[in-house]
Design a protein that fits this description.
Layout (H helix, E strand, L loop, with lengths): L3 H16 L7 H37 L5 H33 L19 E6 L13 H8 L4 H7 L10 H20 L3 E3 L4 E2 L1 H6 L12 E2 L4 E3 L4 H6 L5 E3 L5 E10 L18 E11 L4 H18 L4 E5 L11 E9 L4 E10 L3 H5 L3 E3 L10 E9 H11 L7 E2 L13 E2 L3
Parallel strand pairs: 2-7, 6-12
Antiparallel strand pairs: 1-9, 3-5, 4-5, 7-8, 8-13, 9-10, 10-11, 11-13, 14-15
């Protein structure tokens, strides 16, 4: 959400900043609505003063023994005008709020310029010190079907295309990844583990800026007007909606596993093979709520917590600094982490680490107070996947395959697999 005070003072700067995301913000319309709303507020205050005088006039007339009908008619007319003004004022405010809510967050001044993925900047690449395979690699779907650990046809029979069904050791490998990531983030990096609802209300989806822009990509439970979550960022951050947090408790650090649900999967053609794009996937999320002056460093911290998982799994990855047009609606700065899938021969996004500055906090009325008597201020919110398992599974299967079509278990996961060192079948 945008600060109306900043818009009043620097409308041209706001418009220019948002244009870096390829969005034309109608700042002139917003200022016109804001001016009308302030004028109505002033007129409303005048009505209150006039009504106060009218009430006194009625009292004086009655005290003097006169007929107060004229004064009473005048007071009634003022009340009717004030009520009509209040209705109009609410409508103008709603129109202004809707307009401001439709604008994406301003990108950070240091975010790369550009509107397409070709303009993202590669920050770094990490490659494990492992020998290159000397045999022809299979993709994850061929491997998984050959071992009987993934059954996409039955998943489609149960629900539809893009809804995976893990079987046997495939299901256990998925669980091992989740537990390994949760244990690392909570046991070593100080995150407080949560288990969150997988459905949220409209206020929650608005607060983290999924609504209104992304409503068509979300699964709506129409009877209850609830949305299945696209990421556990939504319920985690909304824990503190409409709260004033004690500043001494910051930073707040949360991690949660959840299933994630997104309609978008069916729209990507060839990229829908196997686990590359699915409607339901699992993810371990990292969320921090911090004081504004620490958020830039916190974003790098979360990035490190996410990439550490890939290094322990000895998977090749790269980090991209997303250009303005590729960032999410609410992000001011975003780094994507992509893992290399050697059988598929492609980079796969497994995390976006985003700094939302105060954009989400303003939308959800989330504030903190520094000291006993300080004025409530807006914190910064950040999140990142640590990591998303569906594409991580792709990278693990394809990177750890053997010439016989088996899958070796990464050393970091073997304790979570009961000591199993390879998958040779269900």
């Amino acid at each position: 959400m945008h600060d109306i005070k900043r818009l009043r003072q620097n409308a041209d700067d706001v418009k220019t900043a948002i244009a870096r995301k390829g969005f034309d913000a109608d700042t002139a319309k917003a200022l016109e609505l804001d001016t009308r709303w302030r004028q109505m507020t002033q007129r409303g205050d005048e009505f209150k003063a006039e009504l106060n005088k009218a009430s006194k006039a009625i009292g004086m007339a009655k005290k003097a023994g006169r007929d107060a009908q004229e004064e009473m008619d005048h007071a009634r007319s003022l009340r009717e005008q004030a009520a009509a003004l209040d209705d109009e004022k609410r409508a103008v405010r709603a129109e202004l709020d809707t307009l401001l809510a439709s604008w994406p967050a301003e990108p950070d001044p240091n975010a790369p310029e550009g509107l397409t993925e070709n303009e993202n900047l590669e920050v770094r690449e990490w490659t494990p010190d492992e020998p290159a395979p000397d045999f022809k690699l299979q993709d994850h779907l061929a491997l998984a079907e050959g071992l009987g650990i993934l059954d996409m046809p039955r998943g489609a029979k149960i629900t539809g295309g893009g809804w995976p069904l893990y079987v046997g050791k495939g299901a256990r490998l998925e669980r091992a990844l989740i537990n390994f990531m949760l244990d690392t983030q909570t046991g070593e990096h100080g995150y407080n583990e949560l288990y969150v609802p997988f459905a949220v209300n409209r206020d929650s989806a608005f607060g983290t800026s999924q609504l209104p822009k992304l409503e068509e990509d979300m699964y709506l439970i129409e009877k209850d007007d609830l949305f299945l979550i696209p990421t556990s960022e939504v319920p985690i951050t909304n824990m503190h909606r409409n709260e004033i947090i004690d500043g001494d408790s910051l930073p707040l650090k949360y991690s949660a596993f959840s299933a994630c649900f997104r309609r978008e999967a069916g729209a990507y053609g060839a990229d829908t093979r196997g686990l590359l794009r699915v409607h339901q996937f699992n993810k371990v999320e990292l969320v921090q709520i911090v004081e504004p002056e620490t958020s830039d460093q916190t974003q790098l911290e979360i990035l490190g917590h996410a990439t550490e998982i890939l290094e322990r799994l000895k998977l090749r990855y790269r980090v991209l600094d997303l250009c303005c047009g590729e960032m999410s609606f609410g992000a001011a700065r975003c780094f994507d982490i992509e893992v290399w899938a050697p059988g598929t021969e492609s980079w796969l996004e497994v995390s976006s680490v985003s700094n939302f500055r105060d954009f989400q906090a303003r939308r959800m009325n989330l504030r903190y107070r520094a000291g006993d008597h300080g004025k409530p201020e807006l914190p910064h919110t950040l999140n990142g996947s640590g990591l998303a398992t569906s594409r991580l599974m792709v990278a693990v299967m394809e990177s750890y395959q053997t010439p016989e079509g088996r899958i070796r278990i990464p050393a970091a996961l073997q304790n979570y697999m009961g000591g199993l060192d390879q998958i040779s079948g269900v």
